[in-house]
Write a structure and sequence with these properties.
- The chain has 12 helices and 26 strands.
- By secondary structure, it is an alpha/beta fold.
- The protein folds into 3 domains: 173 residues, FAD/NAD(P)-binding domain (3-Layer(bba) Sandwich), CATH 3.50.50; 114 residues, FAD/NAD(P)-binding domain; 91 residues, Enolase-like, domain 1 (2-Layer Sandwich), CATH 3.30.390.30.
- It has a 5-stranded parallel beta sheet with strand order 3-2-1-7-19.
- β11, α6 and β12 form a beta-alpha-beta unit.
- α1 packs parallel to α7.
- It is globular, with a radius of gyration of 23 Å.
Length: 463
């Protein structure tokens, strides 16, 4: 179709990746980007909170970037409805934009439980760059902060606030922190580590009321105890931004339901990222995987199909990785499968590993270890590779059961990396994007260390 009109709603990683991919295939089509926020990376907000980067480093797409990709931008605008029959979207100012195909990549928003006092000054979410800016403008150095919710979002926030030298206390409803990310044994290792680094965790209770008291905030807990702090951050969950799609006949579940081309049940309308409920790797089920790598994959597949390609998505791998004040915590795939597991745990050395097996293949894993342990960090990548490739390990399963801290030999022997290098999402490498280092004259520096030589100096035994 000559001069095809693509409309992308949402300037997050899924939307930008889709735009870049469309330009890999089409140079003359029309692309309009609509978003109520500027283009920025949510995952670097902790570095902004900690003072490690300036706010300008949070943003991922400036006008030069969009001009380079020949994109018409309507940032600061919000889509209020979709007319699938007329193939148009209506914006909050009453104007309309026509499309030949449409990508919904509107992401997600933070939720807030109905706690009395949750609307008081000093109580806020920490999901957007605006939230971070508001906190930094108000918070005093070395202040006391309560985080309601010790899940993935709460622990991501922890890294930024702890780096900003604030005293943090978590209040978590479940009996363990990170209840939907790691098993209870791993949670105990993380809690112990955080406690040794000045972070308090209160689990198995909830906040029943928040009140202002002498310039501070007082939290009443269901356990009968109370907590006095300077600020409260609510991190109890997120929800997909899909209300505006309700009248368009688009099917939804936990998110907007899409097939393995990232297309909805309405022809010509696609969805990607946090808002999409898409295919799961090695499964017939669908899920919302609200993580940035999945957003990138969704966006690339959707963009290719919007550009007329026939790309089928194998599905996303559910995984989460956080840094809990210097302790790396990761979980992958079906980590809750405890029928056949390999386990290592030491609170003294702050190591916890659980590999979940299906036959001789690793289908899920929990990996916890110090961020300074480069070997453990490499193992995280290798475990992810085992799961993504669906590698049948054969006799190497027995080797891992006996040597659970040595994954390098089976990884190399089974040629996992070689197999992964042959796979691409669309059948071709990405070309477009206009990505560049945006802060001259400062340049990134790579520091050479002896660790790489240690890791590669010993060849695995031949089999």
């Amino acid at each position: 179709m000559a001069n095809k009109k693509h409309v992308v709603v949402g300037a997050g990683p899924a939307g930008l990746r889709a735009i870049e991919t469309i330009r890999d295939y089409e140079s003359d089509s029309s692309i309009t980007l609509i978003g109520d926020e500027p283009a920025y990376s949510r995952m670097v907000i902790p570095y902004y909170l900690a003072g490690d980067i300036e706010e300008r480093a949070v943003y991922t797409g400036d006008q030069d970037y969009f001009t380079n990709l020949n994109v018409n931008t309507k940032l600061g605008s919000r889509v209020t409805s979709i007319d699938a029959k007329a193939k148009s979207v209506t914006l909050d100012d009453g104007s309309t934009v026509e499309y030949d195909d449409l990508l919904i990549a509107t992401g997600s928003s933070a939720t807030r439980p109905p706690i009395p006092g949750a609307d008081l000054p000093g109580v806020q979410n920490m999901w957007s760059v605006g939230d971070a800016r508001a906190f930094l403008s108000r918070a005093k150095p070395n202040s006391e902060v309560a985080i309601i919710g010790a899940g993935f979002i709460g622990l991501i926030i922890l890294d930024g606030l702890h780096g900003g030298h604030h005293k943090i206390t978590f209040v978590e409803l479940e009996d363990n922190i990170l209840p939907r990310m790691i098993a209870s044994g791993g949670a105990k290792v993380v809690e112990s580590w955080m406690g040794r680094h000045g972070v308090e965790t209160i689990t198995g209770t909830s906040v029943t009321r928040i009140e202002a008291s002498n310039g501070r905030l007082s939290l009443s807990l269901a356990s009968g105890k109370s907590l006095q702090v300077d600020s409260v951050v609510v991190a109890t969950g997120i929800k997909p931004n899909m209300d505006f799609a309700a009248g368009a006949g688009i099917k939804t579940g936990d998110g907007i339901l899409v097939n393995n081309q990232m297309e909805t049940n309405v022809a010509g309308i696609f969805a990607a990222g946090d808002v999409a409920e898409g295919p799961i790797l090695n499964s017939q089920a669908r899920a919302v995987h609200a993580i940035q790598p999945t957003a990138f994959e969704h966006g690339r597949v959707a963009g290719a199909n919007m550009a007329g390609q026939k790309v089928t998505y194998a599905g996303s791998l559910g995984f989460n990785v956080i840094d809990a004040v210097g302790l790396q915590v990761a979980s992958f795939g079906d980590w809750q499968n405890d029928a056949d597991t390999t386990n290592v745990s030491s609170d003294i050395t702050s190591i916890y590993r659980r590999l979940s097996w299906k036959g001789d293949a690793i289908v899920g894993a929990i990996m916890i270890g110090r961020a300074t342990d480069i070997g453990a960090l490499n193992d995280v990548g290798m475990v992810k590779g085992f799961i993504q490739a669906g590698t049948a390990l054969g006799k190497w399963k027995d080797y891992i059961n006996k040597n659970p801290l040595d994954l390098r030999k089976p990884y190399v022997a089974c040629k996992v990396a070689e197999g992964l290098l042959k796979t691409t999402l669309t059948g071709k490498p990405a070309v477009s994007g206009g990505r560049r280092y945006r802060f001259p004259p400062i340049q990134p520096v790579t520091q050479k260390t002896p660790w790489h030589q240690v890791l590669v100096s010993e060849a695995p035994e031949k089999t």
